[in-house]
Amino acid sequence: MAFALYISPDGNDAWQGTKDRPLATLAAARDALRNRQEKNVPVIVNLRAGTYNLHSTFELHAEIAAQKARKSSTERIRAKKCA
């Protein structure tokens, strides 16, 4: 089972990041990834079509994807475009 987050330009960062209540910013998604309970499951970040304005440099580090390194790699963060 994967941990899925949804982000949409029409979302709201006070929401949970679900399909029906997406987050609005990449920064909020990053924070949700840092604070999630299940840290050893794959992560899927679903970016809905639109424009995401960044007001500063956005960084996403591998330690967010996995609590600890695996034998050959850390958990992968996959981003996919969704409707």
Written overview of the protein:
Helices cover 17% and strands 20% of the residues. It is built from two helices and three strands; from the N terminus they run E-H-E-H-E. The chain has a three-stranded parallel beta sheet, covered by helices on one side. Strand 2, helix 2 (62-65) and strand 3 (77-82) form a beta-alpha-beta unit.
How many helical stretches?
2
| Rounded mean pLDDT score | 76
> Between the first and last Cα atoms, what is the distance in angstroms?
22 Å
Radius of gyration: 13 Å
Biggest sheet statistics? 3 strands, parallel
Q: SS-based structural class?
A: alpha/beta
- Order of strands, main sheet, comes to 1-2-3
Taking pLDDT < 50 over at least 5 consecutive residues as the criterion, the unreliable ranges are 67-80
Shape: globular
Notable characteristics:
83 residues; alpha/beta; 17% helix; 3-stranded parallel sheet; globular; 20% strand; single chain; 2 helices
List the helices and strands and how they pair.
Blueprint (H helix, E strand, L loop, with lengths): L2 E5 L18 H10 L7 E6 L13 H4 L11 E6 L1
Parallel strand pairs: 1-2, 2-3
In short:
It contains two helices and three strands. By secondary structure, it is α/β, with parallel strands linked by helices. It has one domain.
